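Journal club prep — side note

Before the paper discussion, L.F. wants everyone to see what a predicted structure for a comparable chain looks like in token form. Sequence:
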Amino acid sequence: MRLKEGKDHHTYIVQEIHIELNLERRLEALGLTQGAEITILNNDKKGAMTVRFRGTRFALGRRIADNIIVKEAAA
């Protein structure tokens, strides 16, 4: 599933990131890599979504969230 389809307060595991190379490298530098856990804090389906990974909160735009493939983490 795509990250933008995720639900608030659920944790997911990043499987793939399909976005232009320079933006992918920037996300990697922030710690968002394949296998990383990411928790959705606010996904109101309108604008940017708020997520937490590596202990830090980030806002991700819809276009970025649409290109991150995730699976739900085991509870």
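L.F.'s comment for the group: The two ends are 17 Å apart (CA to CA). Keep this in mind when we get to the figures.
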